[in-house]
Amino acid sequence: MAAGKHSQAAEEKAASRGQSEVNKKLKYISLAVLVVQNASLILSIRYVRTLPGDRFFATSAVVMAEVLKVLTCLLIILLQKRCNVKQTLLFLLDSIVFQYKDTLKLAVPSLIYTLQNNLQYIAISNLPAATFQVTYQLKILTTALFSVLMLRKSLSRVQWVSLLLLFAGVAIVQVQQEGKKEASVSDSSNQNYTVGLVAVVISCLSSGFAGVYFEKILKGSSASVWVRNVQLGIFGMALGMLGLWWNDGAAIAERGFLFGYTDMVWCVIFNQAFGGLLVAVVVKYADNILKGFATSFSIIVSTVMSIYLFGFHVDLLFTAGAGLVIGAVYMYSLPKAAGGSSSSSSSSSSSSSSVLPRTTEGAEMEAFLPKIKDGGLTREPEHGWKMI
């Protein structure tokens, strides 16, 4: 009897050790995926926006990404309803149309997200990719501040220090970059550094407010997050089409909605639409510290790739500023000491992101595949959706 129990205990220990090794490998895979997704989106947008020749309409790309996101959410809802089309339609009719007051609550964040997606194209079109990647981390600061003001969350001393370092690092980078252009495009482009800087700052402000507002709505509702994203997508498509008509209506009527679309442009759109979903699948194996590392590594990757792709020049001042930002991102992601109050962890990586509206991270992250009925996605402004 004792021998049997000993054998069973040994098997359980071996299984636990094996599972631990698998989880360790998955963490490293998650880290790699997060870094690649965070860096590739910024670099690819920058690349397609600086290529010579016909340039696609950013407003149409924003609308197309919204369409793909909504279709994905509808497909997942259909799968949840065991491919019963009638039941799915009745469910959507009740959730979106009959409960229209609930749907209208999503108009505000959807408007901000649509504005933000367009601002992202404007910012990356006018700023070096590395500079944008560093400056865009200000979304951590704005999200934290809005979380304190709107959700009454508290921050640890380490997090407050990290926010100060973050602001200082971004300020140093901006001082260094002021008036500079990328060597490869400085003579032929019509880039405007001031326009890009204003766009990224407004984007960070909107990211913080919209993410916290969306989190507040989610916490006060029992509605499926998939449905929430369909509601957001409906408003996003409508508002995106309005922005498209207002800004590029005449040109699109003349040249077509898909004017300037190349294989690379489609890759950017799919990355923007599904990148957050990919992150949601792998991030369940990660934690806040790993995501902090991913954001930091993505800044380094963006900087190094910008040197080779765009002739970006890195000097001591930029290195110092970027180093402060990387350190601040890592510090902010550290868990609080035992007994501390809950932190404002609703910000995410430029994975982070995004990326993506913001909800609380870490322990609240639900497994995506095994618990599809209980889990869901929340949208990240910088790269689509993330799990809650």
From TrEMBL:
It comes from the Eukaryota. GO terms for cellular component: Golgi membrane. GO terms for molecular function: pyrimidine nucleotide-sugar transmembrane transporter activity. The keyword Transmembrane helix applies. InterPro entries: EmrE-like, Nuc_sug_transpt. The chain crosses the membrane at residues 26-45, 57-79, 158-175, 195-214, 226-246, 258-283, 290-310, 316-334. Its main location: Golgi. This is Solute carrier family 35 member 2. Residues 341-354 have a biased composition (Low complexity). It is a multi-pass membrane protein. Belongs to the nucleotide-sugar transporter family. SLC35A subfamily. It is found in: Golgi apparatus membrane. Keywords: Golgi apparatus, Membrane, Sugar transport, Transmembrane, Transmembrane helix, Transport. Signal peptide: none annotated. Residues 340-363 are annotated as: Disordered.
